[in-house]
């Protein structure tokens, strides 16, 4: 078997480890051999080695050089003892950034677009199965809807490993909404049969996110769907309509707005989400008091002043310790300062900029929608490390699904895009 085919198979296994805890549990040789030869770490290390053998230049692109520079900065700060390495979750945040960029650039620079499309399709199938299993688990055990970090208590509550690993992680629930705009993009140009599949897929994602009862992902999923359906041509009109709606909400009497959320709270059977709706109604009725927070909304609002004060004490290097991880970007500025935040921003900007250059004009809008909403998400909620796989790998990678078409249908498009890629590569490196 050729090396590139071996890499494709290992990459699909990597996708399983990234996007599904269920597949991670099933991918084991222990029942047969008595020892697991396909541990996550071994698979990833083998994958990195094979890519280095086949395409070593992928490790030395401009984006990867920024990643290495970023690592060096943090390494120096860690050995200096300034950063609290126990709470900063450095590798948890940034290991996925390295992996996602490496995988994407390997296939793009190899110009093996058809193989990349198969890998991304496999990832989407894995995501669909994960979402379906998550719905099933939450339907049977709705009380564990917010236990998305995989604690042992969840294992005990569910009473079996299949339910434990079937429960979606926080990263899955918070990251999966960002693929919705690209799904809408394909829906608009797909044939009837494929359109039905896409509609079902989007519905499964939305149901899974809603049942997981995390407010921010639910809102982000709604915005992803709204702006994607509006499209580029109707985006201005959608913004105007949204502004008018916000103005209308602003002039509605406070009692009416609070009663609306109280009513929603009574209608929603999921306990945690019902509590969130009731808390929103409460703060609308009484106002936000961060000095004595009595609701989840006030508790979240009270975090921001503390983070701002911490950042102001040392804006360059930060405090060196975690302030409140529930708000990703503000906490990051406070914890590692501009020195540790700007490099990450440059990495994200550089990578997504090059991804957008390789996209057709049609798809570019949908990638931008996902990217902007991903950034916004970090100001209202925590962004865990694995979520970067959705932004840096899956969203731009979905563009290459068009290469799954038959040779006759895609040949002209392939030639045109190869020329575009060559021009881009001549101007800049990723």
Give a description of the structure.
This protein is mainly alpha-helical and 430 residues long. It has one domain (3-427). It is 74% helix and 0% strand. It contains 22 helices and no strands. It has helices at 3-19, 21-26, 30-33, 40-54, 62-79, 90-110, 113-140, 152-158, 161-166, 170-175, 180-189, 192-211, 215-230, 235-251, 254-267, 271-286, 296-301, 303-313, 328-358, 361-380, 388-397, 407-427. α11 (180-189) packs antiparallel against α20 (361-380), α13 (215-230) packs antiparallel against α20 and α15 packs antiparallel against α16. The radius of gyration is 23 Å and the shape is globular. The relative contact order is 0.12.
Secondary-structure topology with pairs:
Elements: H1 3-19, H2 21-26, H3 30-33, H4 40-54, H5 62-79, H6 90-110, H7 113-140, H8 152-158, H9 161-166, H10 170-175, H11 180-189, H12 192-211, H13 215-230, H14 235-251, H15 254-267, H16 271-286, H17 296-301, H18 303-313, H19 328-358, H20 361-380, H21 388-397, H22 407-427
Helix pairs in contact: 1-4, 1-7, 5-6, 5-19, 6-21, 7-12, 11-12, 11-13, 11-20, 13-20, 15-16, 18-19, 19-20
Brief description of this entry?
The protein is mostly helical and 430 residues long. It is built from 22 helices and no strands.
């Amino acid at each position: 078997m050729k090396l590139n085919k071996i890499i494709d198979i290992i990459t699909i296994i990597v996708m399983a480890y990234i996007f599904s805890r269920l597949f991670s549990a099933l991918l084991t040789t222990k029942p047969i051999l008595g020892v697991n030869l396909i541990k996550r770490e071994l698979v990833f290390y083998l994958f990195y080695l094979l890519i280095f053998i086949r395409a070593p230049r992928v490790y030395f692109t401009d984006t990867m050089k920024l990643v290495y520079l970023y690592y060096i900065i943090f390494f120096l700060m860690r050995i200096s003892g300034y950063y609290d390495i126990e709470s900063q979750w450095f590798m948890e945040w940034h290991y996925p950034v390295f992996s996602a960029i490496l995988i994407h650039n390997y296939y793009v620079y190899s110009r093996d677009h058809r193989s990349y499309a198969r890998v991304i399709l496999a990832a989407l199938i894995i995501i669909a199965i994960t979402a379906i299993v998550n719905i099933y688990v939450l339907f049977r055990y709705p009380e564990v809807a917010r236990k998305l970090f995989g604690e042992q208590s969840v294992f005990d509550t569910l009473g079996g490993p299949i339910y434990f690993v079937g429960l979606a992680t926080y990263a899955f629930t918070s990251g999966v909404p960002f693929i919705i705009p690209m799904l809408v993009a394909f829906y608009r140009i797909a044939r009837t049969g494929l359109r039905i599949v896409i509609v079902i897929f989007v519905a499964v994602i939305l149901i899974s996110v809603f049942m997981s009862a995390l407010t921010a992902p639910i809102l982000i999923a709604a915005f992803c769907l709204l702006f994607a359906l509006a499209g580029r041509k109707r985006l201005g009109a959608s913004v105007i309509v949204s502004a008018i709606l916000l103005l209308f909400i602003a002039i509605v009497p406070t009692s009416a707005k609070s009663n609306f959320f109280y009513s929603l709270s009574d209608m929603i059977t999921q306990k945690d989400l019902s509590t969130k709706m009731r808390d929103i109604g409460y703060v609308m009725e009484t106002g936000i008091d961060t000095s004595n927070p009595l609701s989840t909304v006030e508790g979240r609002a009270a975090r921001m002043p503390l983070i701002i004060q911490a950042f102001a004490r040392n804006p360059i290097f930060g405090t060196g310790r975690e302030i409140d991880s529930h708000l990703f970007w503000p906490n990051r500025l406070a914890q590692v300062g501009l020195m540790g935040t700007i490099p990450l921003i440059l990495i994200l900007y550089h990578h997504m900029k090059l991804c957008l250059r390789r996209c057709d004009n049609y798809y570019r809008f949908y990638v931008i929608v996902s990217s902007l909403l991903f950034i916004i998400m970090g100001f209202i909620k925590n962004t865990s490390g694995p979520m970067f796989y959705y932004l840096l790998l899956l969203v731009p990678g979905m563009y290459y699904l068009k290469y799954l078409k038959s040779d006759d249908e895609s040949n002209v498009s392939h030639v045109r895009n190869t020329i575009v890629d060559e021009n881009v590569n001549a101007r800049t490196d990723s």
